[in-house]
Design goal:
258 residues; mainly beta; Porin; 14-stranded mixed β-sheet; 12% helix; 44% strand; globular; HotDog_dom_sf; Thioesterase family protein; TesB_ACOT8-like_N; Acyl-CoA_hotdog
Length: 258
């Protein structure tokens, strides 16, 4: 019941639970985002420290990739005592498939200054259970537990969690567990039927003002389609304590009936 098995110091093999939504014989990108975040947090050989916290995660998705072994790499682009920029990358099928650039900053006590976060949304128990396989195929979609309230096409609040481990037999922190679910924001409050309209995201960027808990992930989401083939999925990110950040995904929108 894990999404990946480690096969070497820098290699991982996806399990069948990673099967994609746009094509079921490809990987769903969501678990890979969690894996890269996990590596940024835990790669002591290349980073040599664990005293910084991620405040921004930006992923570029280079294209679809098969359910095959992946090779990873982590490097520090900008070292510093209080601020560090780290890049992590996955290659699969002989090419680069996802890149993460993460800004990490020193942790300090700013409780006396805290404030300004968006208001909390009603928790998971206030939303009806929903099977995402109503709209999407794929093993990853089947592996998540979803609660949802829709206000309109492309507008709604979703809570999502998974009982699957990210990496088999490895301790994974709350940030990486959360990052492994972020990509579902684009598919849980759809603006158009994905059987008729494709709207894959080419990137995902999350800005965080505090660390998430790693359990239920709340997504207060708005999906916008422009008039020239582009779109945007925007979400305020919540856990059961309240809001902890914001997310944006740039979309390529195209009809499948043409």
């Amino acid at each position: 019941m894990a999404y990946f098995r480690r096969t070497g110091a820098t290699t991982f093999h996806p399990t069948p639970h990673v099967g994609g939504a746009w094509k079921t014989d490809e990987q769903h990108v969501a678990p890979t985002l969690g894996l890269l975040t996990h590596l940024v947090e835990t790669d002591r050989e290349r980073r040599g420290r664990d005293d910084l916290a991620a405040t921004r995660l930006t992923f570029d998705i280079w294209g679809p990739y098969p359910l095959e072994e992946m090779t990873t790499d982590v490097r520090v682009l900008r070292p510093g005592r209080g601020v560090e920029l780290v890049e992590a990358e996955v290659a699969c099928g002989g090419r680069r498939v996802v890149t993460l650039r993460a800004w990490l900053t020193a942790v300090g006590d700013t409780r006396a200054l805290a404030g300004g976060a968006p208001a909390p949304v009603p928790g998971p128990d206030a939303h009806a259970a929903w099977r995402p396989s109503t709209d999407w195929p794929g093993a990853f979609v089947e592996s998540i537990d979803v609660r949802r309230t829709l206000a309109a096409p492309g507008r709604g609040t979703v809570w999502v969690r998974t009982g699957h481990e990210l990496v088999e037999d490895e301790k994974v922190g709350g940030l990486a567990r959360t990052a492994g679910l972020l990509d579902v924001a684009n598919g849980m409050t759809v603006r158009a039927d994905p059987r008729r309209v494709a709207f894959p995201n080419v990137d995902l960027s999350a800005h965080l003002h505090r660390a998430p808990g790693g359990g239920w992930l709340g997504l207060d989401t708005t999906v916008t389609f422009g008039d020239a083939g582009a779109g945007l999925t925007s979400s305020v990110l919540h856990d059961e304590r309240g809001a902890f950040g914001v997310l944006a995904q740039g979309l390529v929108v195209r009809g499948l009936d043409a």
